């Protein structure tokens, strides 16, 4: 009962604060009593890095860049460091899009995470990799190590953390996804990727990144990720962190009940118990299953945001919060699981006119309440 009362109170507060929200990019107060304090500053005071995903097109959009630079200490490439961008064919290595984002970050004093060296999922590997029948495990490992080391070494010393492997656990089975690489190497493909990344970027923290979440349908996914991480640790594979994407696409925020919160905390406890840091790597809130009213959606999203981040920041192992886009019309969710009523979604901290929303104040409030970490 206490937890539900608190959420209702937060929702009312978010609505009140949100009514005062105005554009941040022009230097005016964003929302609430922390609107004049950038999120990156609030985060840094607690030993947390705050940032966003960007794509190479966005660095040429001044209004969006203004918000990124005002709020963020770090960025991560949305797609520019993925294999299908860098090496779409065996003969071609296209560094241009990724280099553009790295140069943008350097020019503006931003830190940068890397995402991702191996998206171990046949849907997101280049066709030429999927179509290869390797003659041996050695042949597959040679290709993998050559690619991983080339990408990780390119900006070694600047990119402070890499998502080495992304989304290799099948949520339906809890097992490692089958690809042309696993058919040749078995699960050792994961170990090889991490070892190659460590050799190429020895100062970077190395993460496994996935979208397992607190949602009721994710039980097999969570269990599979824990089994995989336990195996990597047993093998002394250099995995330093778990990247928790923090999307919520399979249940509305109202499903984050005390029961689901306990289940989720148990999962995070298991991960940190392995000595892993926690990175919240792709945070947003999908409102596909929520009522159409803007004010109601914003209040519910803000209340969930505060609840979720309060829990995650209670772990001093949580070192990063990256949102997957800062403004609604920049969000990938506009095209993913669209609302049945056809209304635009409101999954991010700023609306499509670059006005701060109650969600932004919820993030700020959670950062202010977070314990300090080293």
Short recap of the structure:
The protein is an alpha/beta fold.
Describe the structure.
By secondary structure, the protein is α/β, with parallel strands linked by helices. Helix content is 41%, strand content 13%. It is built from 13 helices and eight strands. An eight-stranded parallel beta barrel has the order 1-2-3-4-5-6-7-8. It has one domain: Glycosidases (TIM Barrel), CATH 3.20.20.
Order of helices and strands: HHEHEHHEHHEHHEHEHEHEH
Q: How far is the first residue's CA from the last residue's CA? A: 34 Å
Average pLDDT reading? 92
CATH homologous superfamily assignment: Glycosidases
CATH fold type:
TIM Barrel
**Which structural class fits the helix and strand makeup?**
alpha/beta
Q: Main sheet, how many strands, which sense, barrel? A: 8 strands, parallel, barrel
Q: Outline, from the CA principal axes?
A: globular
Uncertain segments are 1-32
Task: Please outline the helices and strands.
Layout: H1 2-18, H2 39-44, E1 49-54, H3 62-71, E2 74-77, H4 83-86, H5 96-107, E3 111-119, H6 127-130, H7 137-154, E4 159-166, H8 180-185, H9 188-200, E5 205-210, H10 219-234, E6 241-244, H11 258-273, E7 277-283, H12 294-313, E8 318-323, H13 358-369
Parallel strand pairs: 1-2, 1-8, 2-3, 3-4, 4-5, 5-6, 6-7, 7-8
Helix pairs in contact: 1-12, 1-13, 7-9, 12-13
């Amino acid at each position: 009962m206490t937890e539900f009362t608190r959420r209702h109170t937060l929702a009312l507060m978010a609505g009140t604060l949100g009514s005062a929200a105005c554009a941040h990019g022009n230097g005016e107060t964003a929302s609430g009593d922390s609107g004049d304090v950038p999120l990156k500053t609030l985060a840094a005071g607690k030993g947390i890095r705050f940032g966003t995903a960007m794509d190479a097109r966005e660095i040429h959009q001044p209004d969006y860049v203004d918000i990124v630079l005002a709020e963020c200490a770090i960025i991560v490439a949305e797609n520019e460091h993925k294999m299908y961008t860098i090496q779409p064919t065996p003969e071609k290595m296209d560094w241009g899009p990724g280099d553009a984002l790295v140069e943008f970050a350097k020019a503006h004093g931003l830190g940068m995470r890397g995402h991702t060296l191996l998206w171990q999922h046949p849907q997101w590997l280049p066709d030429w990799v999927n179509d290869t029948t390797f003659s041996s495990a050695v042949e597959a490992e040679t290709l993998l190590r050559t690619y991983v080391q080339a990408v990780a070494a390119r900006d070694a010393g600047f990119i402070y953390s890499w998502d080495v492997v992304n989304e290799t656990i099948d949520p339906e089975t809890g097992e490692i996804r089958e690809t042309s690489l696993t058919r040749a190497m078995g699960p050792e493909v994961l170990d090889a990727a991490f070892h190659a990344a460590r050799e190429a970027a020895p100062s970077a923290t190395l993460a496994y990144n996935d979208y397992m979440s607190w949602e009721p349908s994710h039980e097999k996914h969570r269990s599979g990720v824990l089994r995989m991480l336990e195996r990597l640790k047993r093998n002394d594979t250099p995995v330093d962190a778990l990247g928790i994407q923090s999307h919520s696409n399979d249940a509305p925020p109202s499903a984050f009940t005390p029961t689901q919160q306990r289940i989720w905390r148990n999962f995070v406890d298991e991960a940190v118990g392995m000595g892993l840091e926690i990175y919240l790597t792709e945070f947003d809130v999908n409102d596909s299953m929520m009522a159409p009213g803007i004010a109601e959606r914003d209040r519910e999203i803000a209340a969930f945001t505060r609840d979720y981040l309060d829990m995650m920041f209670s772990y001093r192992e949580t070192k990063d919060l990256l949102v997957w886009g800062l403004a609604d019309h920049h969000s990938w969710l506009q095209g993913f699981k669209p609302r049945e009523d056809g209304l635009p979604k409101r999954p991010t901290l700023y609306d499509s006119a670059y006005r701060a929303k109650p969600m932004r104040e919820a993030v700020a409030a959670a950062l202010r309440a977070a314990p300090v970490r080293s």
